[in-house]
Amino acid sequence: MEFATSEDLHRVCAERLGETAGRRFAALARRGFRLEPAGAGSEPTGRCRTGGPALLEPGTPWPELDGFPLSLHAVLDTDALAPWLGDELPCRPGLLNFFYLDPALPYERFRHLDGFSPEACRVVPADPDRAVVRPAPSTARSYPPELVHAAAVAMLPDSWDVEDDDLPYDDGEHWGATSFVLDRFGDLDGNSSGNHQAFGWPGLSHASGVSAAEYRGERRVHLLQLAEDGNWSWGDAGTLYFLISEEALAKGDFSQVVAEMRCC
């Protein structure tokens, strides 16, 4: 669930769940961005975009896996995102280049890699003042560049990802916290796994068996979510997520990023 402001989120939570449960549900909120193509009245957000060449500091090698170049999928300009994220972005990495081993390429030797393999991804930071345009190697799959508008939103986890200990509820009326939230937020609730987004809550579908409790328990931060679009596909209605531990993010250690691909 997404809201234009934190104030709207807190107000709606209190109105629909009551003061106590609403306050606890609102406490699960995270700040993030819905990534949309720039244009038609929406300006590009800094240097954020999908596809195109990388923006790397001079001398930075193009990421590879056993000699095979990864594909550049997106660039996030965190300087442009930082004012909304606040303390949720404890470091200032500048530009973040997101690379992934393109699953559409016929690399027989990599068929053993699944959607949870950290070797298949790299996130490379770059100083915006020193970064230069770096076209992809000829052997890498390239995607057309598209400037992105990052719409700031306050995000709640999907109702199916709420655990019973998260909220007080009447167990005589509801079979769990999920039932309580579904009953009160049914017209607003919805999973966001069909969209590109940055930070906030990942759109992890309950159908995949992933819960917000698992996500919170691992103390991971969601950096980027890439849904299917006209350029790439992640299996059957799949989505690609880039995640990092809270500790690694605080240190600015993006070598610890992992990618997870989830599909039906």
Give the low-pLDDT segments. Answer: 206-210
CATH topology: Hypothetical protein YwqG fold
Largest sheet: 11 strands, antiparallel
- Overall geometric form: elongated
The proportion of strand residues reads 25-35%
- Number of continuous helical runs: 6
Structural class: alpha+beta
Describe the structure.
It is a single chain. By secondary structure, this protein is of the alpha+beta class. Helix content is 19%, strand content 28%. It has helices at residues 6-17, 19-26, 78-85, 177-185, 212-217, 246-251; strands at 2-3, 30-37, 49-50, 54-56, 64-65, 68-69, 71-77, 95-100, 121-126, 132-134, 146-155, 197-199, 220-227, 239-245, 258-262. Strands 1, 2, 3, 7, 8, 9, 11, 12, 13, 14 and 15 form an 11-stranded antiparallel beta sheet that branches. α1 runs antiparallel to α2 (19-26). Pfam families: DUF1963 (PF09234).
